[in-house]
UniProtKB/TrEMBL annotation:
It is an enzyme of class 3 (hydrolase). Residues 1-17 form the signal peptide. Residues 744-851 form the CBM2 domain. The active site is at D713, E722. Transmembrane segments: none annotated. Belongs to the glycosyl hydrolase 9 (cellulase E) family. It comes from the Bacteria. This is Endoglucanase. Its EC number is 3.2.1.4. Keywords: Carbohydrate metabolism, Cellulose degradation, Glycosidase, Hydrolase, Polysaccharide degradation, Signal. PANTHER family: ENDO-1,4-BETA-GLUCANASE (PTHR22298). PROSITE patterns: CBM2, GH9_3.
Length: 851
């Protein structure tokens, strides 16, 4: 999301005399005409408020300051070349005539000056200009600065500038990506034994080249020939394919070489993907708001006090009012949740899809995978010994926040964040900005309805009271959204936080209806599901899904969770996933750096790496639904791209790979700006290439970049190198799936459930056998499962039975709670309604073998 880059302003200095040397015709400032309506990247100092009005940047300046430099408007990252000539020109006028200074120099200590000149600004617009020679050398996106000094006046004033231009220098803008690259591109982390192993060679040769695989001792262990692929338009590279799949010996420190060019080292092992499954989830504890981040879980360098709990200088999230223009008449306690990205905002639509993705990862594992991988004690979080699967614990931190964002009328506020953008760096506990609720929106309300209904389904066998609370909130939200079907977020509400506006919410209506139907079985929700234009994966395409396009989330739930919809419709949904996955594989086969991403319409967009991962989730589900190995292999190709097999020789995941992202756009992981602060922690995902070049750093550095090379590891490059919860949730889903498919040990079930039923026209009598297949006795037990149809438990025996929606639980009686290893207990029930037999069972939260 957009973020301000408010750096230390240019202070008073001694400046050289102006020069009359001729300047080259290179424009060095960005957005000098303000035609877009945005001031970015122009910043203002304390006591100055910028706004763009009438196509001008107008600065409201508080009077009473002593020096001209006490009130500033400026732009950082302006390049200057030593001994080169520059001409600064601009239009200006003021409400009250005053003298201002235009200055060029250094934006950080020791604030060396290059040039400065005073100008008498009047109430009439005038054109001003002066020429000077630089005495300093600042590369693109370095510490050069242009600023207007507006202070030293006794009274308030407004000064407007327009058509700001700095022409000069001899080096063309966009001198090339500063990231060092290799000619042989590999996954720098590792390749899983038994799966394809591919790399990319950058070479203009038109004939096959000899490649050599060497072990850590430098000994050649395999060799072969490359396959020339020619020019790769997306990366701009001439490429060859290297396939070394035939070598499958586990080890570390392998390298691939072609001639004198060698790759970064990598492993052949599943160990790294197993670690990344958990490190990608650790990101969310780091991002928790309203609680201290403790060293015992993250280490000393990442620990910090709780942010936004009304401890000075925080103004806190305990009682947050609406924006002043909304007049909502109440405040909300919205402590908790995850900070969305590199700033301190919290957003329902982005938090919604992130929470859903974590919950879906667990639901998929519970129904068709390895839920034991997320059992209690697997994550380094405070809840690791509470008896609840840790993945659900982490998701609950956000789900509880979503509930707090619900207004009294059932609608949900779109977001809560600072009233103004904070500077880099700003530790969360030191954020002094006021906090404000934005308006409620239909999209946010449907996010709340969908996630709360999904969570109610998953908690029904763990905490019935909490499950009921979630379902009540979901129902209330859905009803409110139907009463307010077009209350859209304001696209201009982007001061202090991103707008996250969404013009179409039919997809959110479909998603929310699906989750409510899957949890309750209510016919009203079923009708909304089947009547939706998104039904049966109608919206699934190579473009994938994201926070603003959520219909495929509903499709995934219908493909995984039990419900009463026709089996043919579910088959159609699963077939759509395979069809789109095939489209990805066909396109990937033509790429120099294979990745499931469709760049045909918008190029590489903000957060492109999350799109890669969401499409990898489609491939993963296609494998789940069909068993076809080609889809599994496509998932790993996507991970190879993210972990180093890309044209920038970069792993976009912090802590993974020889050349991994470090300088994420983040207000606490900000070592690039403050050496006392940490870099991004392991498992954090960078947003990735963005060919639209939407921040000043990349605009200066990367002009003309090929799409896959529009990225740089710089804290100021927020449009390519920010982090976000919905990007890491995608990484967590995919790496959790990949770890499961990598030979990660699947725990032997400690339980087995036998189920048989005698059926009649509108009911059945079911007999259930629970067997302890573990090594320790059960002292108590709770069985949980979900009916796929309209069945309702009418009576039961040998257990205490309860049902919420389709979810059924049975807990032991006082006399049959203890079950020794190898022994069984027999229970049963009668139902009304119809439907097929349940197929997935848990006892005490653990998935059981069925027999």
């Amino acid at each position: 999301m957009l973020a301000a880059t408010l750096l230390v302003a240019l202070a008073a200095s001694t400046f050289p005399a102006a020069s009359t040397a001729a300047a080259a015709e290179y424009e060095r400032v960005l957005n000098g005409k303000f035609d877009s309506g945005s001031a970015d990247p122009w910043w203002s100092s304390a006591g100055v408020t910028n706004r763009v009005t009438g196509g001008e940047l107008c600065a409201s300046v508080t009077g009473g300051t002593t020096n001209p430099w006490d009130a500033l408007v400026g732009q950082n990252g302006v390049p200057f070349e030593n001994e080169q000539s520059y001409t600064l020109s601009f239009d200006a006028h003021a409400t009250t005539a005053q003298t201002i200074a235009a200055a060029a120099g250094e934006s950080v200590s020791p604030y060396r000056g290059i040039a400065k000149q005073d100008f008498a600004v009047t109430t009439a617009k005038q054109r001003f200009t002066f020429t000077f020679t630089s005495t300093l050398d600042f590369p693109d996106a370095g510490n050069g600065q242009v600023a207007f000094q507006l202070g030293g006046q006794p009274s308030d004033n407004t000064i407007c500038v327009d058509n700001v231009s700095l022409i000069g220098g001899v080096k063309p803008p966009g001198g090339g990506n500063p990231t060092p690259t290799k000619k042989v591109q590999v996954d720098q982390v590792g390749y899983v034994p038994g799966l394809p192993k591919r790399a990319t060679l950058v070479s203009t040769a038109t004939t096959p080249q000899t490649w050599t695989l060497k072990n850590s001792a430098g000994t050649a262990v395999a060799t072969g020939q490359t396959t020339p692929k020619g020019a790769d338009a997306t990366s701009g590279d001439p490429v060859h394919l290297i396939d070394f799949s035939s070598f499958d010996t586990t080890g570390t420190g392998y390298t691939l070489s072609v001639g004198a060019d060698s790759s970064f080292p990598f492993d052949i092992s599943a160990d790294a993907i197993k670690r990344l499954r958990y490190d990608s989830l650790a990101f969310f504890y780091h991002q928790r708001s309203g609680t201290p981040i403790e060293a015992q879980y993250v280490g000393d360098q990442y620990a910090h006090p709780a942010g936004h709990v009304n401890v000075a200088p925080n103004q806190g999230d305990n009682n947050v009012p609406c924006r002043a223009d909304l007049n909502c008449g109440y405040t909300l306690d919205v402590r908790g949740g995850w900070y969305d990205a590199g700033d301190h905002g919290k957003y329902v639509v982005n938090g919604g899809i992130a929470a859903w993705q974590l919950l879906n990862s667990y639901e998929r594992a519970m129904r068709i995978g390895d839920a034991a991988a997320f059992r209690d004690g697997t994550l380094a979080i405070p809840e690791k010994t509470n008896g609840v699967p840790d993945l659900l614990d982490e998701a609950r931190w956000e789900v509880d926040f979503l509930l707090k964002m619900q207004a009294p009328d059932g609608m949900a506020h779109h977001k809560i964040h600072d009233a103004a953008w904070t500077a880099l760096p700003t530790r969360p506990e030191l954020d002094a900005e006021p906090r404000r609720l934005s308006a409620t929106s239909t999209a946010a309300t449907l996010n709340l309805a969908a996630v709360a209904a999904q969570a109610a389904r998953l908690w029904s066998g763990i905490d019935a009271t909490y499950s009921a609370k979630l379902l009540a909130a979901a129902r209330k939200a859905y009803t409110a959204a139907k009463a307010n079907p077009a209350k859209l977020a304001d696209p201009n509400d982007n001061v202090g936080g991103g707008a996250y506006d969404d013009k179409t919410v039919s997809d959110e209506f479909y998603w929310a209806a699906v989750e409510l139907y899957a949890t309750t079985g209510d016919n009203a929700y079923r009708t909304d599901v089947t009547a939706s234009p998104h039904y049966k994966a109608a919206s699934l395409s190579r473009a994938g899904f994201y926070w603003g396009g959520t219909a495929p989330l509903g499709d995934i739930t219908l493909a995984l969770a039990p419900h009463g919809l026709p089996a043919a419709d579910v088959t159609a949904i699963k077939s759509a996933f395979a069809s789109v996955a095939d489209q990805h594989l066909t396109a990937m086969g033509q790429m120099g750096y294979a990745t499931p991403y469709d760049n045909s319409v918008d190029g590489y967009v903000w957060g492109s790496n999350s799109a890669v991962l969401n499409n990898a989730q489609v491939l993963a589900l296609a494998h789940d639904f069909t068993g076809a190995a080609k889809y599994r292999d496509g998932v790993f190709e996507a991970l190879h791209y993210l972990l180093g097999r890309n044209p920038l020789s970069t792993s976009y995941v912090a802590g993974y790979g020889e050349q991994a992202m470090q300088n994420a756009h983040h207000r606490f992981w900000a070592r690039q700006n403050d050496p006392t602060l940490p870099i991004a922690p392991p498992g954090s995902l960078s947003g990735g290439p963005n060919s639209a070049l939407q921040d000043p750093v990349v605009q200066r550095l990367l002009a003309g970049c090929p799409q896959q090379k529009c990225w740089v590891d710089d804290i100021g490059a927020y449009s390519v190198n920010e982090v976000a919860v919905n990007w890491n949730s995608a990484l967590a889903w995919v790496t959790g799936w990949a770890a499961e498919k990598s030979g990660a040990p699947v725990s032997k079930p400690d339980c087995e459930v036998g189920y048989s039923a005698n059926k009649w026209q509108d009911g059945q009598s079911a007999h259930v056998k629970l067997t302890n297949t573990g090594t320790a006795p059960w002292t108590a037990w709770k069985l949980a499962f979900a009916f796929p149809g309209t069945q309702r438990v009418t009576t039961g025996w040998s257990a205490t039975w309860s049902q919420t929606g389709r979810d059924v639980t049975a807990t032991n009686m006082p006399w049959n709670g203890r079950v020794e290893p190898g022994k069984s207990v027999y229970i049963g029930f009668n139902t009304s309604g119809s439907g097929s037999d349940p197929t997935a069972f848990t006892i005490n939260g653990k998935s059981c073998k069925t027999g």
